[in-house]
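Q: Joint fold for the lines below.
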Amino acid sequence: MSENRLQEAISTLKASGVRITPQRHAVLEYLLNSMVHPTADDIYKALEGKFPNMSVATVYNNLRVLREVGLVRELTYGDSSSRFDCNTSDHYHIICNSCGKIVDFHYPSLDEVEALAEQVTGFKVSHHRMELYGECEECQKEEKNKQKSG
Amino acid sequence: MSENRLQEAISTLKASGVRITPQRHAVLEYLLNSMVHPTADDIYKALEGKFPNMSVATVYNNLRVLREVGLVRELTYGDSSSRFDCNTSDHYHIICNSCGKIVDFHYPSLDEVEALAEQVTGFKVSHHRMELYGECEECQKEEKNKQKSG
DNA sequence: TAAACTATTTATAAAGATTATAATTTAAGA
DNA sequence: TCTTAAATTATAATCTTTATAAATAGTTTA
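A: Joint structure:
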């Protein structure tokens, strides 16, 4: 089925000088055939039949490698702490890639996106969430100063 | 300054039958005066001067109570695992509130939102991320079946 | 094909965020 | 003031992810 994508992915890995181990091959193949955006633990459990001695660390290592090569995207939910916000009105957040600062940002509600999503996916949408990422003014200034002095 | 908001919030708590303890009062006050969307640990550290014996659990308990009453929103980043996705093209995700299933969803890039955000906040935006939440078709059906049989 | 080099895997422990438990304390109404 | 249920504290446990060091195994080169 996705044999082509698998071969392409392996070529990409080889071109990046990444070794093709059986475990790595299996993680990649599993991800390519999966439609459900599995967690690291999902993958670990799915492969433990074939690789009874495989360590969780191996799954994480391979996911990191695949991400670095650009073959896999990570949807982070578990890499930092929850944030708490007293502003309970609808708004979005813009987050600085450098210093982590979170700033509120208002924009008219994207009802249109919700409506289209309902049509396409059959979901009954309750709400949505959006975060913008970038570099805040302060960090931009610091960046410029570094370039000057450096 | 935000003395009014504090009094309002306390009224809301009392109306919900929630006790006003010194620790709870402090957490609430800190959140109302904070503009940076603090983590639970931020709050814990900020209050340990005033309450040297306070437990982290107290902070978490109070944040949960404040959330349940609707005074606080939680931006979850740390409540579940990362998800991994082989589809590295731009797309959004729609997530089922009941079963947790994640489905890809395509929509024209929201360049307009990014442009406005740059103007308003001064950030240099690199990318954005959006998730829609709702109930998938399967879970909607199950819900209907329950209502019939129940 | 064998040897060598180094990336990868494994096993284990550690870190960090959050929740659970049980005993003690305390807010708020009678 | 007394009472009672709720809240707090201290502690341990859970869960995800990362770090470390020793063992293993891909890949290149002779």
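Q: Anything notable?
A: Chain B has two domains: 3-69, 92-149. The helical segments of chain B are 3-15, 22-33, 40-47, 56-69, 111-121, 137-149.
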